[in-house]
Specification:
The protein is an all-alpha fold. The chain folds into two domains: 158 residues; 54 residues, no CATH class. Helices cover 71% and strands 0% of the residues. Helix 1 packs parallel to helix 4 and helix 4 packs antiparallel against helix 5. The longest helix has 37 residues.
């Protein structure tokens, strides 16, 4: 059962947000007479959209650093900011040529919004339901070949190590954060090794989470390329405006016109 005090986005809400965002993006792209990307309105939308798109990056940092007291709240902010930010970016690029390097950045943004929504709606929740349906310790159904005594000893070792790594943390929910790796790298490495041994022993859980794990890696990789592309685009249009204009007029606010 969902905790009523825990911020979350239900399946229906995620799919509704994706549908509304997709419809709004289509309307924006088909709307006649939208401002040019370099116009004051176009640049304002780009700036606001880029700021909102920093929320997913902040969510990733807060989640992995352990600095956030409420990662689910950051996740909700990450989803809402990404969808609203993407719409503002669509206003910025609607009148532009998509068959350019910035167009690739936009396609990455579209992929991130759609793929992230579908992974959260189906794979993540399906994995959670698998755990919820099982009454076994740690939320998995133990295969018949599992050596329960060995598993119990491994969990005891994890619990003892966790008491030295992060006293008070829950062994069933804990994973080392950036802070743990920086402060106690050897203990974090040993704990991670024990956790991976446990996952290999429990084959059903490992198989169920394989698709989710690869989907998350793909999402993070696409996000990395998106942020690098976004940073490169901002640097080029602001500092190498002459190059970005390709010999044409520079009709947007910029710092220097290097590249003429």
């Amino acid at each position: 059962m969902q905790n009523p005090t825990r911020p979350d986005l239900p399946l229906a809400t995620i799919l509704s947000l994706l549908a509304v965002t997709s419809l709004a993006a289509g309307v924006i792209l088909l709307w006649p007479g939208l401002p040019a990307p370099g116009s004051p309105t176009g640049q304002l939308c780009a700036g606001l959209g880029a700021l909102l798109l920093l929320a997913p990056l902040a969510f990733s940092i807060m989640k992995r650093s352990g600095a956030s007291a409420s990662p689910p709240a950051w996740f909700v902010a990450h989803v809402l900011a990404a969808m609203l930010g993407s719409l503002l970016i669509f206003v910025h690029v609607a009148a532009a040529d998509w068959l350019t390097p910035p167009g690739i950045i936009l396609l990455l943004l579209v992929f991130l919004v759609v793929q992230g929504s579908l992974v959260r709606a189906f794979l993540t929740r399906g994995f959670a339901l698998l755990f919820a349906r099982s009454g076994a310790p740690h939320g998995f159904g133990a295969p018949a070949s599992l050596d329960k005594a060995e598993l119990a000893a491994l969990i005891d070792a994890k619990t003892a190590l966790l008491a030295r790594l992060d006293p008070g943390a829950d062994e069933g929910l804990f994973s080392p954060t950036v802070g743990h790796w920086l402060r106690r790298p050897l203990r974090s490495l040993r704990y991670q090794w024990l956790a991976e041994r446990e996952a290999r022993m429990v084959g059903a859980r490992a198989a169920a989470g394989a698709g989710l794990g690869w989907s998350r890696r793909l999402h993070l990789l696409a996000a990395l390329f998106f942020y690098l592309g976004l940073l490169a685009h901002v640097v080029v249009v602001l500092f190498f405006a002459g190059y970005a204009a390709g010999g044409g007029p520079i009709d947007w606010w910029h710092v220097t016109d290097w590249g003429r």
